[in-house]
Amino acid sequence: MSTHPQTGSLYFVRHAPVVKRTGHVPPADPPIMDGPFNLAPLCKQLPENAIWHVSPLQRTVETAELMKQDLKPVRVSPATELVEMDHGSWHDRPVSQVWDEIKDGPLHNWTFLAADHVPPQGESFAMLAGRVRDWMRGIEAGFDPAPRIVITHAGVIRAAMSVALRAPLDHVVGIPVPHFGILRLTLMEPSRADAQGGCWLFEGLTDPGVVTA
Known about the structure:
The protein is 28% helix and 16% strand. By secondary structure, the protein is of the alpha/beta class. It has a 6-stranded mixed beta sheet with strand order 3-2-4-1-5-6. Helix 4 (125-141) packs across helix 5 (154-165). The chain is globular.
């Protein structure tokens, strides 16, 4: 490890629970459920005065609004690359109907869809992961040690883990990510990251306990 590497922390936060019909694939752009949510355990784990990147979908924008008063971002930028996977014509349809379309495989041991499966008129997890990888490469190229909070979606968080860990997509696509869950990554200034291990460090995926069963 370098003696004094220059590093920056990124905190990926999943949005609040959303309004959806039981037994259905969620809508493409639903609002969050009514609170109130106790955000104190979440905000304790996040830095104030950070740079924020927010998916422009309704649920992430609304989640960001819940968090702003406590965390006071210095700048908030929309990140269209970090929207959730597009399930195309499956959005808001009964899961049982969708299952009839995919049950002949290829199937996955831990989640509904294998990483390369493309929903009708939608995109695969692999396609989403490509968007996330490109965004993270941009963060590398414009390295800034200032802390960043990324308010986004479960699929994006899984994809970010795959980049940081260099893990195969089919090994991360089924990882559970709770609502308000926090993925922390540390980025080493890429020109200093010349030894083994790459420039990204996985620091953990935590559930702050905002949503209780």
